[in-house]
Design a protein that fits this description.
The protein is of the alpha+beta class. It folds into four domains: 11-116, Immunoglobulin-like; 123-186, Roll (SH3 type barrels), CATH 2.30.30.40; 196-296, Immunoglobulin-like (Sandwich), CATH 2.60.40; 309-485, Aminopeptidase, CATH 3.40.630.40. 16% of the residues lie in helices and 38% in strands. The chain contains six helices and 33 strands. Strands 1, 2, 3, 4, 5, 6, 7, 8, 9, 10, 13, 14, 15 and 16 form a 14-stranded mixed sheet that branches. Strands 29-28-30-33-31-32 form a six-stranded mixed sheet, covered by helices on one side. A five-stranded mixed sheet has the order 23-18-19-27-26, with no helix packed on it. The longest helix has 25 residues, at 462-486. The chain is flat. The protein starts with 10 loop residues before the first strand and ends with a helix. The structure holds zinc ion. Zinc ion binds next to loops. It catalyses: Hydrolyzes the link between N-acetylmuramoyl residues and L-amino acid residues in certain cell-wall glycopeptides. Residues 369-477 form the MurNAc-LAA domain.
Amino acid sequence: MLFASIGVLTVFAGHAQNPSSSISAVETVPAVNQWLSPGDRLQVRLIAQPGVQASFLNGQPLVELTPAQAQGKFGVYQGTYVVQPGDTLNDRRIEVQVLTPDSVLEVGFSGNTVRFLNHNEPQLAVTRSDLAYLNYGLGEDRLGGAKLGYLDSLVVLHLTGRVGELYRVQLATGQHAWVPQNVVRLLPPGNFVPTSLTGSWSVQGDSLYDYVRVPLSARLPYRTQLLENPTRLVVDVFGATSNTNWITQRTGLQELGAVYYEQPQPDVFRLVLPLRHRQSWGYHLGYQGNTLVVQVSRPPAKLRLRGLLVAVDAGHGGTNVGATGASGAREKDLTLAIAQKLRQELEQAGARVVMTREADISAEISDRVTLLRQPRPALLVSIHVNSAGNTTVQGTSAFYRYVAFRPLAAALYKQMQGTGLAGWGLVGNFNFGLNGPTEYPNALVETAFVSNPADEQRLTNPAFQQQMAQAMTRGLKVFLKQTRAKGPKGWLLKQAALEDK
Ligand SMILES: [Zn+2]
């Protein structure tokens, strides 16, 4: 909305103390601190007495909008300046000059600051932890901005802009992303923008995983996609150019097929890693020194619950109560009760279970993800309780982030409906932290709506909680069975074993 950002604090210099000043607000749009690069647009809005002459920076005109353009308002002025190479501005408030009809000159300043980046001194940053991530854009909601993907620690990023709490990262020519300020550390000036030639790969399997190792000369940012039909993992490494003159494929490979690379543009190196199974079991990506290591998970040898390590996540907890029902049922209590019953059911089926919490404690999402790194589960189910403003909305739903893990969410969803709950929907691309891990198939179950009286009654009923736990256990079994059936006839594992002989 046009005026959403107006009404924020305005700082005046010059005639600031003069209550009769014709200036009532100066803001950049968006009204947050910004860093801009050559070619970026600085947008300024001024609210002042109608009919003045207004300009910003060094004489850039501010144009008075007609009331029709400005939602019926008078005295709204806007101007755009495209930052030019060589422009300098060092975290300054934007100065606006106003000449009133009776020739009084007034000066106002924006509430926030702007920096024009000097590209002769590239601004670099490194990721602070291996839970750092890139966002596609500037969006924000309760799940945070839509994530492009996670990064390892100490990955070097070239920053070319800032909008509020997000830095813009130049990934490659024509490609950028955004990184939250709090997941990176700025580097002092004097560094070069990192680029790298790629070395020759090593492709190898050990007793647990298949690996691709690509030597680089710096920890460059990357993006991964787990694709289907055929199942394959695609990794784009930004700032890398091929000098990979061979790819040695050693013994022990069970999941990787005929791997190869592409160079879709001069500064994007792409690993294409075909997988042998139609159901991918995920991967982990990170650096050892400056060598990029792709660790590919294999489907469990025996696709059944017995012996499998399953992670069960009871949503919320402690100070994070979650949703609350009309009769007072709290999400954090319901999820824990259902999670404990699910654990019981899974253990009865012979699975081993790791819980992200077993009591009413606060646990950050990131801590839960970290907790599940060791030991790494084969599957994860996160349990939640849904809520809507409209109390007639009811039913169960399941969520996944990566399309490769959709079959798990779909199996859980179907079995949950078998309890008599209405089907609310199967939701993909879900930008939730516990749908973030790429290392194992995972899904989130929004069991039912606590905001709906009928659903709330079910949710609080221990017998029905047990039924839901049984349904989820069946869902996992069905997923494993489907995976077994889906695996190309006779399992390609056997074929891989033959090739190795
Ligand atoms: Zn929840």
